[in-house]
């Protein structure tokens, strides 16, 4: 896959970023369970690993912004921004420990964001308002 193709297709970027975010969230418990001794001696996860959350959020923001500029379905625009806002709030809450949330909620939101990008890519990317109006 060509990097220029990814730049020109925000849904592809969104699918990749959201999927990597999901893999990151799924892998974290297993990776740090395997390195329990390191975490206990260091006291926290490595900075580079924690910063991946914000990198994925940034990529997702760009993908959602560009996708909502080109989608023909108004409801889908709201769904994208609601999902991204939820993802942002969950990651921020995880960093600041504001409210206790079930850990699995981030998986649901990431999967929903990936699904929205797939749906938009297949049915709602067009140059006129007649496609994907429902």
Task: Please give the number of β-strands.
Answer: 0
Total number of domains: 1
Radius of gyration: 17 Å
- By secondary-structure content and strand pairing, the structural class works out as mainly alpha
Number of helices: 6
Q: Tell me what portion of residues adopts beta-strand conformation.
A: under 5%
Main beta-sheet annotation: none
Globally, the shape reads globular
Question: Unreliable runs, pLDDT <50, ≥5 residues?
Answer: 1-8
As a percent range, the share of helical residues equals over 70%
Distance between the termini: 31 Å
Helix/strand order, N-terminal first: HHHHHH
Q: Which helices and strands occur, and which strands form pairs?
A:
Elements: H1 3-8, H2 10-34, H3 36-42, H4 47-70, H5 74-96, H6 105-124
Helix pairs in contact: 2-4, 2-6, 4-5, 5-6
């Amino acid at each position: 896959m060509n990097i220029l193709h990814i730049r020109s297709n925000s849904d592809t970027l969104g699918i990749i970023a959201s999927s990597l975010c999901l893999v990151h969230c799924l892998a974290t418990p297993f990776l740090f369970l395997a390195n329990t001794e390191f975490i206990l001696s260091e006291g926290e996860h490595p900075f580079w690993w924690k910063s991946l959350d914000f990198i994925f959020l940034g990529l997702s923001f760009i993908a959602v912004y560009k996708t909502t500029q080109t989608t023909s379905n108004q409801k889908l625009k709201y769904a994208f921004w609601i999902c991204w806002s939820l993802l942002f709030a969950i990651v921020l809450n995880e960093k600041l420990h504001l409210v206790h949330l079930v850990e699995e909620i981030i998986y649901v939101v990431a999967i929903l964001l990936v699904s929205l990008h797939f749906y938009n890519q297949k049915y709602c990317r067009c140059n006129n308002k007649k496609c994907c109006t429902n």
